[in-house]
Design goal:
- It is built from 9 helices and 16 strands.
- By secondary structure, the chain is of the alpha/beta class.
- It has 2 domains: 185 residues, HUPs (Rossmann fold), CATH 3.40.50; 118 residues, TPP-binding domain (Rossmann fold), CATH 3.40.50.1220.
- The chain has a 9-stranded mixed beta sheet, with helices on both faces.
- β8 and β9 form a beta hairpin.
- The longest helix has 17 residues.
- It is globular.
- It starts with a strand and ends in a 6-residue tail after the last helix.
- The structure holds flavin-adenine dinucleotide (FAD).
- The site of flavin-adenine dinucleotide has 28 residues, from α6, α7, β15 and α9.
Length: 334
């Protein structure tokens, strides 16, 4: 079987997200596993020239470009239309891959519906099936079980961040092809993003970060949350929180990890003053390594932690931060 993959990327200010690089790497591997085919990167937006240059060395065969003033802000309808035009350029069978970020979660089902294609979200593994088509795996029941979805072609998949290895490529010289957007449907017109407000400054995106440090109600007061932020800073980590912290107004909802917050899968998760309620655990069970700091040795978080520190987070966090900054030769952030 041969397979043609289209990777719809997620970029901000001309920089490809890490999860987009994961999707590109997986598409390259998939084409090899399928026994041949081509990988195309789909760039959708406005003023994309810098991104085109950035993706040229990604070892793909084609770059499709829909660069249009109407695509300055994200609109799922308009993006789906652009992606449909790209899929039409590829010989069947086609698999469309995109990161399972806010963009991917909104775009994948809409694109799947427009293509009449199977759509699988939060994918963690893709293998060509002995029956033809693909076997696509995703975690269900809060990560307790893995569902395998057998999909005939075509298929649209959003890939869960931090689930696929990023492999550097040997370069290549892809063709760059402009694709016509065509007339947008009425409901896609007049929709625009007025303003993007960053709540995280230069810290990594929570769902993509390799390390996440989270704080819970055990930190006692909002002003103590800085201890979590200081450790995150020296580790180059993203900052998360339990829902109790969000409900108390200490941090915005974008920080919340768990069933009704963000589902994450970092290499290292450090939970500070978090009890380990099931709704929180649902968001972190796919972390590679979990470290818990809690003053109650019987706290449920210790049941799933790989390493536990039973003690007061208010004294352990500054000590850990000092140790990490010393080992990295960094100034102690205060
Ligand atoms: C429908 C529903 C959805 C939910 N969704 C989510 C979700 O997405 N994410 C989420 O997190 N929660 C969610 N919750 C809430 C969840 O049930 C818990 O209430 C919440 O996770 C508790 O947050 P916490 O661990 O910070 O606080 P607590 O449960 O109050 O735990 C605080 C912990 O800190 C420890 N501690 C106290 N002092 C210290 C100290 N000085 N040093 C170290 N440790 C200390 C305590 O021993 C305790 O274990 C949801 C609940 C419902 C009903």
């Amino acid at each position: 079987m041969t397979l043609n993959c289209l990777v719809i990327t997620d970029q901000r200010s001309g920089v490809l997200s890490a999860s987009s690089l994961e999707a590109i790497s997986e598409a390259r591997r998939l084409v090899v596993k399928a026994g041949g085919g081509a990988v195309a990167i789909g760039l959708i937006g406005s003023g994309l020239s810098p991104v085109v240059e950035a993706v040229k060395g990604q070892g793909v065969q084609r770059i499709f470009l829909v660069d249009h003033a109407d695509l300055k802000g994200f609109s799922a309808s308009a993006y789906a239309q652009a992606a449909v035009r790209m899929v039409e350029k590829l010989p069947a069978p086609v698999a469309v891959l995109m990161p399972d970020t806010a963009l991917g979660r909104e775009l994948a089902p809409r694109l799947g519906a427009r293509l009449g294609a199977a759509t699988v979200t939060a994918v963690v593994e893709i293998v060509p099936s002995s029956l033809g088509g693909l076997d696509v795996k995703r975690k269900v029941f809060g990560g307790k079980a893995t569902e395998t979805v057998h999909t005939p072609s075509p298929v649209v998949m959003s890939l869960r961040p931090n689930s696929f290895a990023i492999e550097s490529s040997s370069g290549g010289s892809p063709s760059v092809e402009s694709v016509e957007l065509g007339e947008l449907p009425v409901h896609a017109k007049g929709l625009s993003v007025e303003k993007v407000i960053s709540t995280r400054g230069d810290t990594p995106e929570l769902t993509e970060a390799a390390i996440v440090v989270s704080g819970g109600r055990g930190l006692k007061a909002p002003e103590n949350f800085v201890l979590v932020e200081n450790l995150a800073k020296v580790l180059g980590a993203a900052v998360g929180s339990s829902r109790a912290v969000v409900d108390a107004g200490w941090r915005p909802a974008s920080y919340q990890v768990g069933q009704t917050g963000k589902i994450i899968a970092p290499q290292l998760y450090i939970a500070c003053g978090i009890s380990g309620a099931i709704q929180h655990l649902v968001g972190i069970t796919n972390s590679r390594c979990i470290v818990a700091i809690n003053k109650d040795p019987a706290a449920p978080i210790f049941k799933i932690a790989d390493y536990g520190l039973a003690g007061d987070a208010l004294t352990i966090l500054p000590a850990l931060t000092r140790l990490v900054s010393q080992s990295k030769g960094l100034p102690d952030p205060r």
